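Notes continue from the previous slide.

Worked example: a multi-chain complex. Inputs as given:
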Amino acid sequence: MAALAPTAQAGQGDESRLPKAHSWRQWLDREAWRKAIIAIPYLWLLFFFIAPFLIVLAISAGTSQVGIPPVIWKDTFPFGTFDNYVFLTQDDIYWQGYLNSLRNAAISTFFALLIGYPMALGIARASSTWRNVLLLLVILPFWTSFLLRVYAWIGLLGNTSWFNRGLTSILATFFPFWVTGDHIQMMNTNFAVVLGIVYSYLPFMILPLYATLEKLDRTLDEAAMDLGSKPWEVFKDITLPLSLPGIIAGAMLVFIPATGEYVIPSLMGRGDSPMIGRVLADEFFQNRDWPVASAVAVALLAVLVIPIMIYNFFQAREARRGST
Amino acid sequence: MKRRPYFLIFALIFGYAFFYVPIASMIFYSFNKSRLATVWGGFSTEWYGKLLDNQQVLDAAWLSLRIAFVSATVATILGTMAGMALARFAGFRGRTLFSGLVSAPLVMPEVITGISLVLFFIALNGMIGWPTRGFTTITLAHITFSLSYVTVVVQSRLASMDRAVEEAAMDLGSKPLRVLFDVTLPIIAPAIIAGWLLSFTLSLDDVVITAFTNGPGSTTLPLYIFSKVRLGVTPDMNALATIIVVLVGSGVALAGWIMHRAEKRRERDVQMAIAANK
């Protein structure tokens, strides 16, 4: 025990308390490999995650120029400028992009919760044999290609597909005043984007919800039932409040990546009101405007800092609970 | 007096239909004879044959597989280290930053990761002449985002592992390094394999970060599919998608089943060992 976990002392920079190593081998056993295990992935992330972000920050404070590299900084202090950020507030396409993204992400999160919660509850309440099968069926789409699952929906939504035609005729039977023609335009609409996001990110909603719901103490339900609660009241007063950490984790796991989504709006959305992910990519690939693209990225991260912090806060709280 | 939860059963049926009907439809139409992707024109496997003659698809698939193999392997090594550091070493300097760094790529929108990595690679190339955009940069980017997933999987396995086994080996005189290789790593091996598989499929599937970090002539399979799908649904794309979905799906299902069985057997062994010692 002592050798594997003296980290509380050794890690605090208080190495002097350890007995002096007598051979290289001993030293290796005691300290070096442990330091290597921490240092190698740490340095990798500092180098390939923090450094790139600092570069983006620096470029967002530069000025676009024609040449290589297509960015230039001022010669004098403070070297950078806020012009690119000011520019973001002036052109409607950026405002619209952020708003479209936040709105679509919020609507998608809501529907993912609406579909995912009963599913997660159903899985958690199923018998243990069924539970494994049902869980595997949720995880399987998560492992199979994201792009191809979006592609599968494109096939269904198209104006000539059996799904579109079938849905149209069903709707036309019940709402003849509302639906006319033999198809509904579904592709290249906001509806398609929301549907694509809900479909792609649903496993991210179900899995944390399931993890919370599965741990709930069912005797509480029985106690409430014995005291005269109706099933709906038991759900509203006990299950729902106790599953709040799962709801928040799932909602953040859908909302955050959905806000920056690029593939789904590019393939299924309208070209005239792009989400911000697509604005960023166009700025970078088509306009080759590195400073503005970087500023869009930094601003997007600033928008998402609050949801990311909420997510991390709840994750840390759950981790603390799990360890005690 | 237990009531059947009809609402939950309905929700499950609806949910799984939502998951699987589009995929089933896509597989069905990949056997369509008609050139029009959504109009049924009889059964045919000609689109599968055409794929095998398509050199572009084969090149892209081969490149994707190589990138996925290298990046999954490196990410698994780094992620296992990070998972051990977080689960086993309680208080080292900068631990909070480290755990933040590990979980950040999980929630970071891909466009942000993509643009920061490509600008970083260009700057780095300008300074030291490395890395060249293409295979190297895509692989480095994939390692960076897969690493986090491996870390989470390994860390949670280590957290739920019985530390008494490690302590027993230590008490019997094993050096920490021996304990690591003879006790800890074999026990967490299923998690490491799962992490590798997850990294492999994530790499094989990635569009956005690859689109930013790729270079001339390095079109991966997802990039090829993305550019084709932008132009619409075609029967040969249905066939390609079917091959990938069926291969990955059955691979994952098989791996899940094997791991489930191994876990069951281990539990049974433990039970028997306890019973034998009574």
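Summary box: Chain B touches chain A through 99 residues (CB under 8 Å). Residues 146 and 199 of chain B are 5 Å apart (CA to CA).
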